[in-house]
Amino acid sequence: MVSFDVVSLFTNVLIVDSLELLSYHFEDDVLALFKHVLTSTYFCFNGQFYEQTDGVAMGSPLSPVIANFFMEDFEKRAIEQATHNPVCWFRYTDDTFVIWPHGQEN
Fold first, then answer.
1. How many CB atoms lie within 10 A of CB 37?
2. Are 19 and 29 in contact (CB under 8 A)?
3. Backbone Cα Rg of the chain
4. Sign, Cα dihedral of 94, 35, 40, 61
5. pTM score of the predicted model
6. How far, in Å, CA of 39 to CA of 35, rounded?
7. Distance, CA of 15 to CA of 51 (rounded, Å)
8. pLDDT for 104
9. Cβ distance 57 to 8 under 8 Å?
10. Count of alpha carbons within 13 angstroms of residue 53, beta-carbon side
11. CB 10 within 8 A of CB 67
């Protein structure tokens, strides 16, 4: 049994890639809304306002959904390219439980 956890998932979700993935599931008008929300993220720290330029915003209700689209695509491509496949693969957001019968060296 193996467990994986993505470090800082939300800030590592690529916006451009996520918008491309969303374009396969949503029409252009909805995609434009996604793009607006994902590319206009501002926050205040010590009285100074900043724009987040990488990743999806922590605390945004949309971020877990976008991260899930991103992770689903990432794991699908990774498993398809793997020379050894796990017996089972369960993921919740960025935590993964895997049964790997191929030994530690593989």
1. 16
2. no
3. 17
4. negative
5. 0.79
6. 6
7. 14
8. 87
9. no
10. 1
11. yes
Instruction: Look up tokens 């900043």; give the residue.
Output: 50
Distance CA 74, CA 31 (A): 20
Instruction: Please report the pLDDT score of residue 58 as a whole number.
Output: 83
In contact, 57 and 12? CB cutoff 8 Å: no
Residue at token pair 């969303």: 22
Amino acid, res. 57: A
Q: Locate tokens 């990488």: which residue?
A: 54
Give the HSE-up count for residue 92: Cα atoms under 13 Å, Cβ half-sphere.
2
Tokens representing residue 92 in the block: 């919740």
Q: With beta carbons less than 8 A apart as the criterion, state whether 15 and 38 touch.
A: yes
DSSP 61: T
Residue 91, token pair as written in the block: 């993921």
Name the average pLDDT for the chain. Answer: 91
Residue 17 has a pLDDT of 92
